[in-house]
Amino acid sequence: MGGVGSLNYTGLGAFLGAGADPVFDPLLVQGLQASAQAISHVAIDPPGTPPPPAKEMSFSSPGNLECWADWVRASLYLSDFMQSLEWRTDKRARSIMIGFEGQEFFRLRRPSITTFQEQLKIVRSYADQRVDRTAEILTQLGFPTPYFMMILGLQTAPNRHTLELITVTQVLSAHVCMIAKHHMACRRPDRLGASVMPIIPTPAHGSFPSAHATEAFAVAEVLNFMIGKQKPAHYPDPGKRQRLISKLAERIAVHRTVAGLHFPIDSWAGAILGRAVGQLILARSGASGGADAYRYEARGNLDFFLAEFSKGANRPFGVHRTGSCEARRSDLFEWLWMKASKEFDLAR
Amino acid sequence: MPMQPDAPEAGDPLQDVKMYMSPYEYWNFGKGRRYAFPAMRRQMRYISALAEFRRDGAAKILADVDGGDSPHTPPDSAPQTWLPTLWNARGLSFTPFVVENSFGRAPSPEELRQLLEAGFRASQPMAEQIKEARFRVAFPVADSAMNDAPRSTTWSADPALSERIEPGKRISIIAVIDDGLPFAHRNFRDITGTRSRVEFCWLQSAVSGSKNSSVLFGKEYTRNEIDDLIRHFDDEDTLYREAGALADSEEFAPMLQRHASHGAHVMDIAAGCDTNKGEAVAEEIRIIAVQLPSTIAWDTSGFGKDMYMLCAFHYIFERAQKIAKDYGLPSLRPEGPPAARLVINFSYGFSGGRHDGETELEAAIDQLVKARRDREGPTALVLPAGNMFLDRLHAVVEEAGFVDDKAQISWRVQPNDRTPNYLELWFGVGFEAIGYHVELYNPQGKRVAFVEVSRDTTRLGGDDRRIVGFRAGKSSDIGQISADKHRNSRWRVLVVLAPTEPDDDDLPGADAGTWTVVVVRTKQSKRLAEPIRCWIQRDADPELLRSGSRQSYFDDFRNLRFASDGSPSETDSPCSYVRRYGSLNGLASGATSLIVGGYSGLETAPEADRLAKPAAYSSAGTALAHPWPFRQVDCSSLSDRGALTAGNKAAGTRSGSVSFLRGTSAAAPSVARCLAEIFASKSDEEVAAAERLNYLPLLPGWEVDEPATIPRLGKKRVPRR
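Above: the input entities. Below: the structure tokens describing the complete assembly.
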């Protein structure tokens, strides 16, 4: 399980099959057939009648997205984003460089095993909060979307594009994070410390970075931008919503430490990566220009905190700003962004 | 400084110790140290203790004890020693102190005696006048909490406060001693939400973190600093972290990280004002808060915390004096210093102890409160009655219980218990138990130990005592039985059992099951003038702190636990030695305490609380039919909202959150709050007239003269907050 557990084999997660019509049951098929046989006589043209004139759909138009099933759109977003993603590893430095359209936006060095061992003490001290947080931990095994919905008051039908934007952000973040996890190949807390004893199964992927942190902070980046952009403000209290979203992202990440699955430095690496993925999605959507690029050098004695993360570059915590990464727009993401934005427009 | 294992043992290591060493110290520093609570096993550099002492000609030459911010310079040979913040009062015969253990390892008992003796003397002015001292050792101050050169506090009064106080109100103080205190919580701020009403907050086990600390250990936050923190951080997680309030020297996960804490709840009921709910803010009531070290650090007997608690009282009194002086309050006593009326809420308790106000800590607190009432002004001490009514922790051996000069009680000890179990038997005050001895039988019915209730003439100095260890087969000691004449006035027999499942699985554990304690006497022995009263020490883990404690209890089939309708029986069974009545908080029996029971309210109608029933757990003094010479419950307040809705509702640790707390701990602060509000407005005459009854007559509420509930709820039911 884990956030990416919801991706299933296709990598489309909740999108798989979404929007597709159901397979009919045999009785219905028989019924349809009987009806067709019985009524078709009224629509039969005499022989030699020419077909009536018919129109074509627009060629290669984002507007057509409306007509495709949800999972098809998801597949398109995924291909569109991933074609621009690139990465390479440096075996000697044990680091990975992740880039977009030829520009590096994230560099991560694998921490030493002693760095992780140093972190064990912090992980154990979080275990006392299991009594408080178990309900949240268990309902955030997959994507924690209802928690974001709670803060923004989102509803399934009127906010379906916003929910699609949230889900695609989560799916993309998970894919990017898996690449980093695979190369970093870092062991989980329960393998390094016998007394960690997680309260949920440890997922079968590396510890560093945390995918939950990546997803949560990517969603936070996208939603906070969306909230901030509405003019006049959809919400009377946009600043508070933004702070709650960020605080929620922190809490989602920390739950995984409380559960015994992640080190605080996993959250650090995930949060930095997630922020960048969120910013790249915003750039693809034409909402902003690009992502801030960072390098992260884990510090074993330090915990993860939103207040420190929000500072951006943060030398004592090992977070270094390395530049920026620009990204071009894509009409697919622009379409989704526009649709989602309208959901916050009272006059639509 | 990491410590080596125990000093080498030779025979009975404490045989030659000449100072008074109570059976608790004897066990925890001797054979029981391997089972002792973590702080005692790990850190040993700064040993702390409470000393009870007498000076020559005490009445006239007792010197001023130093104000506390600077230690005395000891003679060169003496160990380094420190006094915590002390209230400046003459004539006190108890003092907390800290002494450095220079051995670099756990001291042997003899070394410990020397350290305490020399350290204590070096800490006292005119030490040559001190003729006799007893020590109650507490658990050591953690290295990282210690600050060996405290400076004076940087606190200053808020110059604009008096303008904001309504006419007719006077500045008064409520002090809260608890755990997990959210000192920057919005409910403790003024109406603007920018200024804290907390004037001082002391976290006793926080990492000291600064050479500039104003307390000997832990960290102090003044109102000025709290206001700064509020200005800088609107995220309270960040605020507490940046303030260092989450760094605990014992490395326990801080309670402030939880949703709810005992202290957040208690402090909110005592002093919180939620302006979002339209509550008015009583700016005239200023707050002092003291956070004791985490309860997990304590031994299940309660051993180890006395010094910290007494320090809290001294600190509150001393800082209250600063508040009175700098806010320009008048004096309340002829020729007294400027003073504020003070209410202290102390929602703590333990089940053991003498219950006659004469345990060391109770006597020390009583002495302090009386001294402050005499010299400065009204001082109320509010304590909960306790939650042990149904827990089977109290038993009474009466004269009629002896058959053939033997009386026995059964003590059930649970398996999977990782902490020691303690059982105390107290003879009557002044009773010489000549010819009495107490035998202990293990669950297999084999006698494993016995002790005579008399002096062992080979143990010199200190109070009369006799201490015997016992083993299971060829193992090392798994327990101890002792008789000592506590504070030279009352014989106590203490039985200690090692955990049934020790943390270190190389150590032998005591058998789980029913142990039998038999009081045996000769035909010639004096009959009991008053019964032997027994209490088992509390051994549960109320906060899920992973201590591994499991509560032992008196197990008597004649004790009918359930009434005919299936509810827990709240009356004592006539033939059983197990008693619900008499289960009163062992910390509350001092003469100056106002003891608060808990009632279960009537959900929808607060005004109907007049008819409320006692909460089933709410402890009591003795039933009216069996007069008890000591204290009874004075009054009560809400501790459950209703029969089906457990607990009282108040704040969680973060602003805007809610928590529920069940127990008399949640009732006491309602009374403390009432009293603080009354203190802020009543005349000197009215307050003075109520002082003899610890201010009970001042409290609002319903007077209910109902014999069945008086021992549980007192005569007055104080409305819920």
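Note for the figure: The interface with chain A takes residues 233, 235, 237-238, 241-242, 251-253, 257-259, 544-546 of chain B (CB under 8 Å).
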